[in-house]
Design brief:
Elements (H helix, E strand, L loop, with lengths): L24 E11 L5 E11 L8 E4 L3 E8 L2 E2 L3 E3 L2 E4 L7 E10 L9 E5 L2 E5 L3
Antiparallel strand pairs: 1-2, 2-8, 3-7, 4-5, 4-8, 6-7, 9-10
Length: 131
């Protein structure tokens, strides 16, 4: 199956450390499974999360661009979410204090020209993050 990913290259927005705020959710464990292919890679992620006791529940925004979302489940069940330009939003009313969030995405490394995330360079598959 082939799909096209539209890459609108825009000027990057400068983010500063002060732009970030701590999440009320602690990610205790992450499991990632990549089914690698230059044209279409499937990524299965499981996030094992707990709300930090001293915090108030908040909506959970998950950043992501250039991805095709196949599935999103919370504790094994579908959960409503909103798609935004730069990611998806899960409302806090849907989030229990402890949960496993499983997300299945497709991405196209060969079409990723942003040099961020998973991309192809000279036939090698490379990942880049902001660490």
């Amino acid at each position: 199956m082939f799909f096209e990913v539209e890459n609108n290259i825009q000027q990057p927005k400068t983010l500063y450390r002060l732009d970030y705020k701590p999440s009320p959710y602690l990610i205790n464990e992450v499991k990632l499974n990549f089914l690698l292919d230059h044209r279409q890679t499937k990524v299965i992620s499981q996030l094992f999360c707990t709300q930090i006791e001293s915090t108030h529940p908040e909506d959970l925004f998950l950043d992501g661009e250039g991805l095709t979302l196949l599935s999103l489940t919370l504790n094994g069940h579908e959960v409503p979410y909103q798609v935004h330009e730069h990611g998806i939003l899960i409302e806090q009313k849907c989030l229990p204090s402890t949960f496993v969030l499983e997300i299945i995405n497709l991405c196209s490394p060969i079409n990723n020209l942003a040099l961020s995330g998973l991309y192809v360079s000279d036939q090698a598959m490379i990942t880049q993050c902001e660490a």
